[in-house]
Please model this.
Amino acid sequence: MRQAEIIDVRRWSAKLRDTLAMTKLFVMVSGCTMMTIVLLVLAGIGAERGDHRPMSPLKGVAMTMSAGFFGDMLKMEIPYYDGGGSRQGGSFSPAAAGAFLLQLLTHVNPYDPRSLLAAELPGMRGDQANVLYSGSGASPGDAPVDLLPGASAISPAPESPAPTPAPSAPPSGQSGTGAAPGAGEKLVFIYHSHNRESYLPELKSKGITDPDLAYDAEVNVGLVGKRLQERLEDKGIGTAHSTTDYPSEIKGFNYAKSYAYSRGTVQEALAMHPKARLILDIHRDSLRRERTTATIGGVDYAQIYFVIGKKNPHWEQNSKLAEQLHAILEKNLPGLSKGVYGKSTHGNAEYNQSLSPHNLLVEIGGPDNTLEELYRATDALAAAVAELLAGAVPAGNPQP
Model:
């Protein structure tokens, strides 16, 4: 009898130890979970105070995880959840978790060697961006793509460069703005830092079918700027437009320095047109047609979005202006605007916007859009600009 009692005590003692161990594990897991939640909340509060969009960084983290990763996390807690039943193996493994953390911290994907090269070689990785104001025309993964073209795509025009009319000689060492001051004040100034960005449908006659080669000295984004100028002037808004072809005018042209070249253009424009209320740097995106086109009322439009350089210490002012213009587009033609994006860590990320709180970078369409689609979008943008300027204030002097 005595031996049986001793054996029974040992059994209950083992159960007690197991219970204590499980309790300890439960407390540790609960504590880690609570700590994670607190850190996420603090990160959200910090982002809200800094960027005015608390969820953008968290969305960026979530988008780097695969659906399978989330499914396997749920499966660990819900025994009867099979993660959709369509995958073999699991994503939530030490290797997968390590790869995710490495990519989150360094932007290098260990399963994609290109990401390692992209971190070191110019042009291999586009400038990453976060959404400041999302538009109804945006889709997941629609962040701006701005890739460095090859040397063969950008070269001085053979003999007849794109015209650059200038009313007076520009300051020594600066290229002309190509903006002729007409009667009345110029309230809008349009220019193109990447003035040769072009469109494949308009380059068929030249045999160009590769989007990486969609650059041209004559048929390019400058036509979009010209259309915008014409529509604004039709509305009685004085507009100046720079048609400077930097590859032809800058000796030893370097595409990576495009914004340094166009900075002189903006400075000259501010001096010539001190009452300008809006400065627009018009670009063409590099995404393909399905990501740059919206069908509204049965008609195709090239989509529009705005980019804010957060290396500019006063970027919040530029951002608010872009949001106002985006809101007008969203009201007039829902789906046309993809929203406002901010760039802060890669590439230029300043875009001459420190020169004026009313300087915006605007992306219209991509290499697969036609001029008709671009012009429809440009006409809508002109109407939005006219509505915006009804309550705008002068751009003022360059900021320090």
Remarks:
- The chain has two domains: 2-123, 134-389.
- The radius of gyration is 27 Å.
- The mean pLDDT is 75.
